[in-house]
Every structure is written in C-alpha cells, then in structure tokens.
Amino acid sequence: xxxxxxxxxxxxxxxxxxxxxxxxxxxxxxxxxxxxxxxxxxxxxxxxxxxxxxxxxxxxxxxxxxxxxxxxxxxxxxxxxxxxxxxxxxxxxxxxxxxxxxxxxxxxxxxxxxxxxxxxxxxxxxxxxxxxxxxxxxxxxxxxxxxxxxxxxxxxxxxxxxxxxxxxxxxxxxxxxxxxxxxxxxxxxxxxxxxxxxxxxxxxxxxxxxxxxxxxxxxxxxxxxxxxxxxxxxxxxxxxxxxxxxxxxxxxxxxxxxxxxxxxxxxxxxxxxxxxxxxxxxxxxx
Length: 286
Fold this sequence. Notes:
With 286 residues, the chain is α+β, with helices and mostly antiparallel strands. The chain is 36% helix and 21% strand. It has 8 helices and 12 strands. The strands form 5 sheets. Strands 3-11-10 form a 3-stranded antiparallel β-sheet, with no helix packed on it. The protein has a 3-stranded antiparallel β-sheet with strand order 4-8-7. Helix 3 packs across helix 7. The chain is globular.
C-alpha cells in the first residue's frame, strides 16, 4: 500500500504477479443480505440455502444455513434489527451503516473514540499497520466535499432514523449518555456517506435461457458489504483484477500479468469488455 496527496492510499503489486494469481481473499467487515434473497440465502453468511433451514426464533423473515450462523447473527446484530426490518428495508444502503455499528459494538466504538482522539490516523497509514478491523473501515474516504448538500441532508435524516432505532432497542442501555448518542449518530452518517463510494455488491452467477437459443449467465446481486482492503483499489474502466465471490468472501485475482510496483485497479462500474461483448451479442440477435 502506498500514499500520495493526489490519489490518497492505493495498492500496488509487491512482486511480479501472473495472470490468474489470487491477490486478495477478504471477508466483509459487515454485510447486509438483500430482502429479495431472504428466502434463498443465509441471513448471516449468504450461503445459498438447502431445503432444511434454521429460522430466527423471533421473526418469520430471515433464515440461516446453520444454528451457528443463527446464534452469531442474533448476538451481533439481529437482536437489535429484528423488530425493525420493515423500516430498515426502506433505507437502502444505509442499513449497512447500522450493521457496521452493531458489528463493531458500543464498547469498542467508545474505546475507538478515545484511541483516535489520542492518536489520529495519518493519511499515509503504513501497510504494516493495516488490517481488516473497524479502524480500517472508519478511515475509508467519504468524499463529503464532493456531495450535494441535499444528499447530505438526506443521509443525515436517515442516520437520525437509525439512531432512533438504536435508542428504542436500548443499544445504549437504560440511561444513554448524550455524548454516546452524538458519537454513534455521527458514525452512522459517516458510514452512510462512505458506502456511497465504498459499498460492494455481493453477487452470484445465475443462468437463464435467452430466446431459447443460448444459456446466458448473469451476475445477480445478493447482498451489500464493506471490504476495507479491496476498497483501497482505485477505479479504471480497464482494470487489471477480476473479482468473484465464495458466499460472502471476496476473491480478487489478477486479470493480466503485473510487474512489481504496478498499481492495482478495480472497476467500480460496468466493465468495458463486458459492455462490448453484450453489444456484439445484441447485434447478432437482431
């Protein structure tokens, strides 16, 4: 990982890399299953479900692949979210900002506030101190300065709604401190803004027939997640890596041979080669 004033932090190849080599295999710090996938995927690890599933003990909405996932989910976040799922379905990616806070936990966030106040993270954070914990999520960019004021206002109102949910669910205890609520409200807003540019869609390949001629494979979105390491990759319409998923694990492989020192580029939107192939396919069907 390197840093400069123009690009901020970014990733480069530490050695020569051959096409097909695995560069990163990362679990998300937090992830949220899309409501449309509740009946087909585990609410916690996002594994496709078998016929036999483990339900939530309190609601009829979510299902799990195992008792282990059910217990972990309830302990970390679902005990808070369970009664408010209908509201959370309405806030889009901001649901993941709440999940980040719940996965981190109130005590850890209060401790983090003290640590970051005493020793704030420099922009050129050393690669030797970079991990996959809450600090790495917190220090991802928000691009606040580039946002429209109306969008910021909407994000702030959404953060306030999420804060209300936490208060109602007694996340802060029976006698919450105003300072604690201010901290968590600010973090909810920060993470919502971060996810606009750092949120990652977990996808899986699904097959379907096209005009009864060929079998077409589409990348279908299953969940939304935050991956602090992969988020350090800058964008290119012609990236040199390709991403795939094993349930919620993001696997990044080299799409071409890379020399030592080459910057690692990801594609944040449609891949130019995929667009070209789709245009060619459409042409031959006309």
